[in-house]
Amino acid sequence: MGRSTQAIVINEKDNVATALKPFHTGTKVSVDVQGRVEKIKLLSDIPLGHKFALKDIGQGDAVMKYGEPIGYSTGKITRGEHVHVHNVGSQPRGDLR
Amino acid sequence: VNFEGYRRPDGKAGTRNYVLVIPSVGCSQGVARDIAQGLREVVYLPNILGCGQVGEDRMLVKKTLVGFGTHPNVFSVLVVGNGCEQLSPQEIQQAIVPSGKRVEVIVIQDAGGSRKTTSLGRRIVKEMREGARRLNRDPVPLNELILGTECGGSDYTSGLASNPAVGAACDLLVSEGGTVILSETPELIGAEHLLAKRARTPEIAKQVLEAVAWWEQKAMAAGENIRMANPSPGNIAGGITTLEEKSLGCIYKAGTGPLEEVIPYASYPTKKGLVYMDTPAHDIEQLTGMLAGGVQIVLFTTGRGTPLGSPIAPVVKITGNRDTYLKMRDNMDIDVSRILEGKEKVNSAGKRIFEEVISVASGKVTKAEKQGQRDFCIFNMNINI
């Protein structure tokens, strides 16, 4: 199995990767970040298509995917942790008020 | 960089060279179909409107039919009327005339019924086709290409592979001075502020937000709160966390360039680069609106697969789902699933798609064209009377 087949990072500004297969807590996943392969130890189970943190994300910081903020951290997120509805808040409305 | 295209009298350039039969009303659709039946390079629009639309909808029907008639992929046009419709075939003809191409009208009530109109129509389109066949392709700079983007039947591979790869191809086209159309406003909801941030001017940013608000209110009036219903429980189970994330997956397919303009349904862009057209997310209404606005080629991303095609322009299907590619080979043009296996970079897949755009614009036949898939549906805002 190729080392970079496990998860994908779409944009260099991203601080999350998307799992291309399901992983269990404690798995060390290889991720290609801007041509550099990083090994990240998962702190939670990650289902297929779900995201985990590439680096620590402070409370209130932007969660970046596609090089854009997809939401804001509602608590401190640690590298390797599952990033999803439990720790990310939506702020979809930057307009109209 | 050039593609090989057909130069038109008004200076525009096409990627295809069709004789087009336009029924000005639903009642003449069957005759229009029979006129085009079995004739290569002759196509008809399966239009069911032209009577019963009022106000802005009547305007949209006319604008769309005229947009197809004046389209650079069309060599000449035959408009088929019934005779008593509100949108007369002569009105459509007159609006196509300024493009400089030949445009004729026949009317079923005048010609004496279906059979006579069909045989008269077939004589006319065969003669037009002779002219079309004498026209050769010439080199056309890529900055004259307007490329439409669309997605449908999405799955988790769309946001991770096919949309980013198409986005990379769009960035390449924009860097060549070409134009890329992003549309389907309801699918923008949740990430509209991120697209608005890329707008060239505050006025353009405001137009993006207004377009989203219009659709949101329209859906709300019909009892659907798009913003609250998304992401759906299925999306969340699949790993989509927020509405921004879901909508960004859609926006990303048009690349990362600054937004130069927002245009209404079925309108031509007046700027080059990334342009937003305000259309429904309904695949065929969206496709029809983009084509009426002069799009000469469409890149269509899909995860689950779709056969969609257009009467007058090539639609290239791109999937990041290997199973779909293998299962629907007669519908899928490009497989970018190797991105998900870590065996291809998004940028190199983008380069591959960009090269395919040039080949297809120059005449390479797409799967949808091979299947004779010719979908057409005009967007209506209100009721038919």
Broad structural category of chain B = alpha/beta
Query: How far is it from the N-terminal to the C-terminal residue of chain A, by CA?
Result: 50 Å
DSSP helix fraction of chain B: 25-40%
Largest interface, per-chain counts? A-B, 36 and 33 residues
Mean pLDDT of chain A: 88
Approximately how much beta-strand content do the residues of chain A carry? Answer: 35-45%
Number of strands of chain B: 14
Shape of chain B: globular
Helical run tally of chain A: 0
Radius of gyration of chain B: 21 Å
Q: What are the main properties of this structure?
A:
heterodimer; A: 97 residues; mainly beta; four-stranded antiparallel sheet; three-stranded antiparallel sheet; B: 385 residues; alpha/beta; seven-stranded parallel sheet; four-stranded parallel sheet; 14 helices; 39% helix; globular
Question: How are the SSEs ordered, and which strands pair?
Answer:
The complex is a heterodimer of chains A (97) and B (385).
Chain A: E1 7-8, E2 16-19, E3 28-33, E4 36-41, E5 51-53, E6 62-65, E7 68-73, E8 82-83, E9 88-89
Chain B: E1 2-7, E2 13-14, E3 18-23, H1 29-36, E4 42-44, H2 56-69, E5 74-81, H3 89-96, E6 103-107, H4 108-111, H5 114-134, E7 138-141, E8 146-151, H6 156-175, E9 179-182, H7 192-197, H8 202-221, H9 233-237, H10 243-251, E10 259-263, E11 273-277, H11 283-292, E12 297-302, E13 315-319, H12 322-327, E14 334-335, H13 346-361, H14 367-370
Parallel strand pairs in B: 3-4, 3-5, 5-6, 8-9, 8-12, 9-11, 10-11, 12-13, 13-14
Antiparallel strand pairs in B: 1-2, 1-7
